[in-house]
Amino acid sequence: MQKPTPSSRVIRIGAFELDPATGELTRNGRKTQLTVQLLQVLLALLENPGELVTREELVRRLWPSGTFVDFDHSLNKAVNKLREALGDSAEQPKFIETFPRRGYRLIAPVEREKEEPEPSPPIASRAPESTVEGTAASTSRRIGFRYFAFALAAGCLGLGLVAIVPGWRNAILGRVSAHTLTDRDTVLVADFVNKTGDSVFDDALKEGLLADLGQSPFLSILSDGTVRQQLRYMGRPAETPLTPDIAREVCRRANSKAMLLGSITGLGTHYAITLKAVACEDGNAFHIEQQEADRREHVLAKLHQAARAVRGKLGESLASIQKHDTPLFEDTTSSLEALEAYGVAMKTWRSKGEAAALPLFKRAVELDPKFAVANAGLAVIYSNMGQAALSAEYATRAFHLRDRVTDWEKFSIDSTYYLYATGEQDKAARVNEEWRQVYPRSLAPHINLGLVDSNLGQLEKALAVDLEGARLAPNTFRAYSNLFYDYVSLDRLQEAKAVLDQAHLRKLDESMLPNYFQLAFLQDDGKEMERCVAAAIGTGSEDALLFFKSDSEAFHGRLESARDFTRRAIESSLRAGADETAADWQVSEALREAELGNAVRAREKVAAALALASTTDVQIAAAMALARAGEVGRAQALHDSLQKQFPTNTLLKSYWLPSIRAAIAIRGRDPSGAVEQLRGTIPYELGGGHPPFSSGATMYPAYLRGQAYLAMHKWNEATAEFQKITVHRGLVWNFPLGALAHLQLGRAHAGTGDSANARKAFEEFLSLWHDADTNVPILRQAKAELAKLK
Fold this sequence. Notes:
Layout: E1 11-13, E2 16-19, E3 24-27, E4 30-33, H1 36-47, E5 52-54, H2 55-62, H3 71-86, E6 96-99, E7 103-106, E8 110-112, E9 135-136, H4 140-143, E10 149-150, E11 171-172, E12 187-189, E13 193-195, H5 201-214, H6 224-233, H7 244-253, E14 258-267, E15 270-279, E16 285-293, H8 299-313, H9 318-323, H10 336-352, H11 354-367, H12 372-384, H13 388-400, H14 407-422, H15 425-438, H16 443-455, H17 459-472, H18 477-489, H19 493-505, H20 513-522, H21 526-536, H22 542-555, H23 559-575, H24 579-595, H25 599-612, H26 616-628, H27 632-645, H28 650-667, H29 671-677, H30 700-711, H31 715-726, H32 729-732, H33 737-752, H34 755-768, H35 777-789
Parallel strand pairs: 12-14, 13-14
Antiparallel strand pairs: 1-2, 1-8, 2-3, 3-4, 5-7, 6-7, 9-10, 11-16, 14-15, 15-16
C-alpha cells in the first residue's frame, strides 16, 4: 500500500475532526495529538472507509520491509491506543471494527472536503548536517552515502537536550515502581535552566549531564532526530528550546514515559543543582534530586551524584550503575570552561555545520589539551571536511587519552581511531560489536558495523545490522540513508525507494538528496536527476551533486558535459575553501579519463589533484590513474609510499595496493602476474571503501582480472569476471567501469565464438552510449568490433 503524504484538509470521523497534516484529533474543542504511528493507522483506515484493511497492509505501511519488530504486538498496541484516543472499544466498536487475525475496518461515518491533487514529494535542498544521534560523518563522498556514527558526550544520548528546575530537599513523589522504565521506554531530556548569572553553566552542565547519563546501558534517551521531528510536526523550528511545557508536548507526542527537567541556582558562593523526573502522561513529578556544591569547581561532581541517583530512580540496577560510573569531573574534563566551549561547539555543529563548529572544538582542546572527546570531535569534523591527515592526527590524540573517558566514550574513540587513523577494519568491527553488546539500544555501533561490513563487501551483513539500527532509531535520517545504500547495493531498488518514501513521510529526507539522485540514475530518470542537482545549488551538497552529475554524464560517454560539471564541482569546493575535496573530484576525473583512453589528460589531472592536496585517498586514486595511463614508474612510487605509510590499513593492503600492482602488471604485459596479485582481493570485491569515489564500489579487482584473462585468451574466465560487474549495477552505479564492463564482456564472448551474446553485450554498451560524444576513441573501437561480428 502506497503511503500518501498527509494533506491539510480536515476529515470528519463521527464527532471527531482530524487534521491529517498535524495529526490533531479534535472533539468539542478538545484536542488529542496522535503519534506518527497512530496517524498512519487511522489514515490507512480512512483511505477505504467501511472496507477491511488487512494486518499485512498495515504492517507494510508502518514498517519498512525487513524491519525487526514484533509486528503482531506492535500493531495491536497501536490500534488499541487509537481506540483510546477515539473513546472506542473492541467489544462494542463505534469506530474501528476488528476482524480477528485478518484486519480492521473503519465503521464511523466519514466526511472530507474535496482535495486538490497533491504535488509529488519535494526534493528539498539541505544545509550540511553533522550529527547522527550524536556526531557522524556527514559528507557522503567520503564514505559513499554510508554514514559513520561517532558518539561524543552528547552523541551517546542522541543529543537529547537537558533541563533542571528549582528544588531543595531530596524527595520521592509518588510510588517509584509506577514509573520504573522498561527496555522499550524512552526518556526526554529538556533544556537546561541556568539561574546563576554565570554563562559557563549554559552549555557545560547540559553536556556534562548527557555524558553522565550516556554511560547507562539501561536508559534510552529520546533521540535528537525524534525531538526535531516532533517540533516540526508542532509547527516549530527544529532548534526551539525545550521549556517544560514544550518538552511535555514533545514527550507525549513521541510516547516517551518520562522527562528530565532541571536547573542550577546560585546561593551566594554555593550552588543548588536540581534534577526532576516527570511523568509525561500526567505531568506529575515522581522524583526530585538535589545537590549543593560549596564552590564552583565542585559543581560537576555534584551533578554527577545527582545523575547517578536519577539513574537508579528510573529503574537501572545498582550493579549496572556501579559498573558504568565514571565521574565526568575526574576523567572527561575538569574544566568547566572547556566543557562550555565543547557544549557551544556541539550546538553550533547541529545548527550551522562543521566549518562553524571547528574553531569552537579547537577552543575546547586549547582549554584542556587532554579533553579526549573534544579531540575526537575534531577528528570527525576534519574527516567530514575531507582533511584525512588532520582527522587521523586528532583521532590518534583521542585514542592516547582514552584512559580519561567513560566506557561509552572509549568505545566511540576506539572506533574512530581504527576507522580513521589505522584503517584496521577487523579491530573496528570488534570494538563496535562489543559496543553493541554493552549498549544494545544504541544506534552508533550499528551504523559503524554496517559501514565496516559494507567496506569489506559483506552486503547482506550490512543490511541486517542497518535494519536493526533503523528499528532502534526510526527518526534518524542516517539510518535511512544507510538502509537505502544497502538495498541499492543489492539491486533491490523497490525496497530502496520504499526507504526514501518512509524517510519523506517522517520528514527526514531533507538531507537525502544524494540518495534521490542515485535512485534516479539507476531508474534512468533524467528529469529527477536534474531536479536534484538544481536543488543542491547554493547548499552544502552543491559540489557533490555536481560531481555525481559529472560521473553520470561520463558513464554515458558524454565527456565534454562531464568535464564541465567536474569543473563546476571543483570550483564550488574551492569557493568553500575545501581544497582536499576539490582534489578528490580532480583525481576522480583523472581516473575516469584514463579508463576512457585519454592518457595525456589523465596525467594532467593527476598533477593538478596532487598540487591541490596529497591526501591518502588522492594518492590511491592517482596511483591507479597513472598505472592505467601508462605512467608505471610514478604509479609504483606512489604505491611504495602508501605501503610504507599505512602498513595496517585493511582495505589498502587487501584491495587497493594489489589492484594498483595488477594495473601495473597489465601495462607491463604480465597478465598472469596481475591475476596472481589479485588473488587476495576476492573476499573484498563488493567493497573497497575509499578512495574518493562518490558512492558504491568500483569493482576494480574483477575488472582488472577480467582484462588479464582477456590478454591470456581465457575467455570463459574473463566472461565470469565482467559479469560480476554487470549484475551489480546498483553497487557500481555511475562509476565508468559499470558501462565499460559491457564492452569487455562483448570481447570475451567474441573470443569464445559466441557471436550472439557478443553482439548483445556490444549493443548494450552502445545503448548506454547512444548519445555519447562521437570523438571518444573507445566508442569508435566498440562500433568497429561490433561491425566485424555482423
